[in-house]
């Protein structure tokens, strides 16, 4: 793909619009979460076109750094079980 300035500007504009829309969506989601967790709150909300359901789930994570330190695992040993993959991203900033 050639470095077309109009394409870059279009990408930047779209990403800015998406960021604004995500902020709006997050504010609505936070309101729904608050309503669902209120005393006697419902977790299902219905509009004319869509239905939203607030679902609570627990997530557990392992603190690998602390675990390896507690077990006496060295950085070299940990590296033997570490997988590295290439990840590509595009960063867009305004001028």
Feature tags:
mainly alpha; two-stranded antiparallel sheet; flat
Notes on the protein architecture:
The chain has a two-stranded antiparallel ribbon. The model has no long low-confidence stretch (mean pLDDT 91). A hairpin with a 4-residue loop joins strand 1 and strand 2 (51-53). With 95 residues, the protein is mainly alpha-helical. It has three helices and two strands; from the N terminus they run H-E-E-H-H.
| Mean pLDDT across residues | 91
Report Rg. 22 Å
Largest sheet: 2 strands, antiparallel
Helices and strands, in N-to-C order?
HEEHH
Strand tally: 2
Oligomer state of the chains in this structure: single chain
Strand content: 5-15%
Low-confidence stretches: none
Shape: flat
The total of helices stands at 3
- Across the major sheet, the strand order is 1-2
Structural class: mainly alpha
Percent of residues in helices: 40-55%
In whole angstroms, the N-to-C terminal distance is 21 Å
Structural topology:
Blueprint (H helix, E strand, L loop, with lengths): L4 H33 L6 E3 L4 E3 L10 H7 L4 H6 L15
Antiparallel strand pairs: 1-2
Quick structural overview:
It contains three helices and two strands. It is mainly α and 95 residues long. It has a two-stranded antiparallel sheet with strand order 1-2.
């Amino acid at each position: 793909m050639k470095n077309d300035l109009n394409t870059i500007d279009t990408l930047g504009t779209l990403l800015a619009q998406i960021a604004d829309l995500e902020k709006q969506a997050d504010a609505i989601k936070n309101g729904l979460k608050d309503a669902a967790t209120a005393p006697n709150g419902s977790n299902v909300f219905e509009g004319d076109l869509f239905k939203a359901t607030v679902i609570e789930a627990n997530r557990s994570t392992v603190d690998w750094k602390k675990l390896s330190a507690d077990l006496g695992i060295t950085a070299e040993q940990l590296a033997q079980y570490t997988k590295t993959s290439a990840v590509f991203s595009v960063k867009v900033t305004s001028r």
